[in-house]
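Sharing a chain and its predicted structure for anyone who wants a worked example. Both blocks are below, sequence first, tokens second.
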Amino acid sequence: MKKKKVNLRDLKPDSETQHSHNDGHSHSSEESISNLKIYLPAIFSFVLLIIGITVDYFEAFPHFSGWIRILWYVVAYIPVGFPVVKEGWESIKKGDFFTEFFLMSIATIGAFVIGEYPEGVAVMLFYAVGELFQNAAVNRAKVNIKALLDVRPKEANVFRDGDYISVSPEDANIGEKIQIRVGEKIPLDGILLSEKASLNTAALTGESKPDSILKEAKVYAGSINLESVIEVEVTNKFEDSSIARILDLVQNATSRKSKTELFIRQFARIYTPIVVFLAIGVTFIPYFFVDDYVFRDWLYRALIFLVISCPCALVISIPLGYFGGLGAASKNGILFKGASFLDAMTKINTLVMDKTGTVTKGVFKIKDIKTIDWEESEFMKYLMAMEEQSTHPIAKAIMEYNESGEDYEAQDVSEVAGKGLKGIINGKTVLVGNKALMIANNIDVSTETESIIESIVLVAIDNKFAGYVVIADELKEDAKETITALHKVGIKNIMMLSGDKDSITQQVAKELDIENAKGGLLPEDKLNEVETLKQNTENKVAFIGDGINDAPVLAASNVGIAMGGLGSDVAIETADVIIQTDQPSKVVRAIKISRSTRKIVWQNIILAFGIKVIVLILGAGGLATMWEAVFADVGVALLAILNAVRLQRMSWS
């Protein structure tokens, strides 16, 4: 069955989705009214059907016969039947005859033709309820995800006529000067005019460490200015900028992604023409074999056959199974953007993952402190007194160190461009920075620092090397157990791709026991790696990421999985599955839930189809009435509901 795309809502609240208490209450009321409108046709038909059946049974109103009775059931039929008949007619006009809508239409209209009005209404009503269940399943999964956000910066402060004015990035010209305030995204690619800048480029490159750059260095659209106001000269039009290029990659990758159809539609394409031709056969074939053949009697039997053949139980049981899976996933902090991705997840055998923000926390922490001839606490007091003057993310990580006693105060602190800080503490000259700062001041640095690949802060006190602090991005608590669990569920091929330095990527991969890892990759490189894996048709690839730079590969993979808690809006929208808690271990749980769901769905299909075949045979032989068929469908639907509910109570630890 064709389903219309549903607009999504954002996982994370922002200025546009935050409301006051009163406003939220109002929206809740509007939503309740909207939901009531959706169910009103089915409720209306159900009430009229029950009243009609009650009057028929008790014969309470003698005048409830003839055209009055027909009109009553027609009115009961129209709210649930008209949309289906209309859809069937639209499909016929497009040349698609054997749709589920067509089968439902001729079966229920046929019931009216032979005078079985309550049965005709009841069958269509059950079909309508099944559709409501299916829509509810999809909507429930998507309620917290927003439609694709345009992450382009909305404005650029361009210097024109002696002043900065705000214009759309598309209206800025090459060679113009733009100003970017602290916390703003750089709207266009360009060259830095200011003396220095600290930029967060994680969304573009996956690099966990903020990028400190000097005058005349290249800067890219989408980077976030972390410290002081900076000026940039535009070198590319917006359509040629880094963000526009990434968004274009997303669009192209999405267009290459095949859409998975649910089993019900594939099955209906085979099932529907078969039962239609069998019904025609039930009507006419007996003419050649039965002596007392009466056309009206066999037409009646054929129409009963059609009513019995309506796939109501299938229509209800299949989406109910997915509904259970989607609901169970949501309870576990996992959002699937549709039932088809539950199916796709069961086939995954290759997992590719980003590093920063996916298996690491994406924030700096002190990893190691090494001192030479200094007590650690004393050493850290000197270092913290210097770093207190800085707003750099590394400085913030150092300031989180817990030390007791009186704090030291740094004086005459000055910044050495691109190298570090110099100051006076307790009458001693203190240097804090990189190796270039030490060399410039003739400080001999321990050779062991050369083998350290993470960010390192070197410290010299009184012109002697005093030690160093290693700053690194922390692994998430469940990162290692995730890899072990993935192997246990049968995912043997695991690969890490990162925009971070290759040396850091390899070290993290080694810690996690991931054999295949590549670092220093651009978005295009990640995309190429996944496309290469997909060239082997046996590989069903899932990719886990969180940044804008991950969006193209999320779209190109068979299943894209985004970290929803800290992930970028584009990554969340492009992905098929969102992990709301940012825990990579939830990926394993998502695989287990999808496999359980598929098992339940197939149980429901076999149950519904098996009983349907039995009743069809009885109906063709004249041994079953339409009411028996309707109640058989109800029984199967109830069993399917109970089976699907099991998913809500299962545990996937």
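Comments welcome. The chain has 20 helices and 22 strands.
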